[in-house]
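hey so i finally got around to running the thing on that chain from the lab meeting. sorry it took forever, my laptop kept dying and i had to restart like 3 times. anyway pasting the input first so we r on the same page abt which one it is
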Amino acid sequence: MDHAHHTLFEDVAKMLTLGTDRRQSMRWLLAGAASLQGCGAGGSSGSTAATLGTTTTTTTTTTASSACAVIPEETGGPYPADGTNSAAGGVANALILAGIVRSDIRTSVATASGTAPGVPLTIKLKVVNVGASCASAAGVTVYLWHCDRDGNYSLYSSGITGENYLRGLQEADSDGNVTFTTIFPGCYSGRMPHVHFEVYPSLAKSTLAANRIKTSQFTFPAAIMSEAYAATGYSASVRNLANITLATDNVFSDGVSLQSASVTGSVALGYVATLQVGVSL
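ok and heres what got predicted. didnt touch it at all, straight out
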């Protein structure tokens, strides 16, 4: 499957295969609501590691909601690689790969060895149990994945079906925290930039998608996206971001108060994104 198929229509089609709940119904009613619009800055394309050319360090912070609420359920999309669909002629399941339990997800594991270039990004999620007044959800496991800077997904997209980078599992510590070292994801046609994740009750149960207790996505502040996409290698993201908004995105159109990460950092130093993830255990 190549990048040309990463369209709004494919994501919508995938979402329509899910059971309809109250939140999904409201999504279509509110899809036309005005919301935050991203805008891009110029950059150059390339297939080698990103050039972090800026010499001025900046820090931008956006505060995400810390309310004790369950994060919305969302589609896992067409490229989850959790054993629920096929890619390259076989079942795509990164959950069972040797080495998939790791913090740094920039390089492939098992028999693959490719590395995804891009602006450095550290993702810090704090998982809390809403059913226990948002106490830390120690021991839960998060499977996280996203596209590369070109908008392609490992295991699925043409040219990288043999790679499994930008996917990883982490078991939450005693405070419910998981950390992933990755790259800033690109923006492909029809979707706002986003990161997918699934939450499992434990590491032992994370090899089977049927055990997941939450599937969701999160995004980033518009100013951060524009700044990151000025870096080398993200020129396609600049163009794609100019043609999509949160209001027209088929996942985020009903609001992102619980799905917008707080971000600090810069292109030169890399970014750190933090988000509280409420689940019901």
